[in-house]
Each structure stands twice: as structure tokens, then as C-alpha cells.
Amino acid sequence: MNSYKGLQVHMSPLNLFRGSAFLGKIYLRRDIYQDFQNPNPKPITISLLEHEITHIKRSSSYGNIKYPLNYWCSNTFRLNEELAAIKAEMKVRKIHGEKFEIEKRAKYLSSYYYLWCIKFNTAKKELTKIWNSI
Ligand SMILES: [Zn+2]
């Protein structure tokens, strides 16, 4: 399977991120891409696809240049986009009765990967709030 909800899915040439979205296409890390090829991919794989599709959907109202520009230039914009995408991700995990590693994600979100767009404690609080709201 090379598409998800009508969007192309590719194996990422980089091994940095589990998933990413670029120009309307989804890129998955090799191991996750391989799981996606299974008839019944794991909920974590589907949750990552939902995360990325949320970025793509939201970016369509901004355009292919403005969205990444805003994303990388504004901490607030980046944080809001990530929280929306993480919420979509969490929904899949919750539906399947899985846990979400809030502390781990809060650490990640408050790190250089996301250019320190939020402090750890605030991230943990926000993620807990989202998790409990769905
Ligand atoms: Zn994201």
C-alpha cells in the first residue's frame, strides 16, 4: 500500500523522524513504512499517518511555501500545528486502547527537534489536557 486516504506514502530517505510531510506527501521511517505494507498495520503506524495527514490538511489553506515558513519561523505556529497533529495521533491510540507516552513526547516537543517551542512542564500539561479531552 503506497497511499493513505488518497495521499502518497513514501519511505523516508532520512532516518531522523518517524514521519514527516512534505509537499502533500507523507514520508515514513523505514521500519514504520514496512509495517504500513502489512495488511493490518499497527495502531502506532496509523496514528503517525493521522499526525502527518493533519499537517497536510492544515497546510492546504496556507500553501506549500507559507506553511513551512510559518512552521519554522514561529514558535507559536509550530506548537499549535504540532498539538493539532498530536491530537489526531492520540485519537487513534485511544480508540485502540493504547497508552500515549506523554512525558516522552513532552520531552521531544520541548527539545531542539522542535526548536524549543515550549517548555517541558507546559508541554506535559498541554498534552495531558488533550489526552484527557478525547
Ligand atoms: Zn508534526
Structure commentary:
The protein has 134 residues and is of the alpha+beta class. The chain has one domain (3-100): Zincin-like (2-Layer Sandwich), CATH 3.30.2010. The protein contains six helices and four strands, in the order ββββαααααα. It has a four-stranded mixed beta sheet with strand order 1-2-4-3. A hairpin with a 2-residue loop joins strand 1 and strand 2. Bound molecules: zinc ion (ZN). Zinc ion binds next to helix 2 and helix 4.
Query: Helix proportion of residues, in percent?
Result: 55-70%
- Largest sheet, order of strands side by side? 1-2-4-3
Strand content: 5-15%
Largest sheet: 4 strands, mixed
Per the CATH scheme, the topology name is Zincin-like
Shape: globular
CATH class wording = Alpha Beta
Please describe the topology of this protein.
Elements: E1 3-4, E2 7-11, E3 19-22, E4 25-28, H1 30-36, H2 43-59, H3 66-73, H4 75-95, H5 102-109, H6 120-133
Parallel strand pairs: 2-4
Antiparallel strand pairs: 1-2, 3-4
Helix pairs in contact: 2-4, 3-4, 4-6, 5-6
Zinc ion (ZN) binds at residues 51, 55, 82, 85.
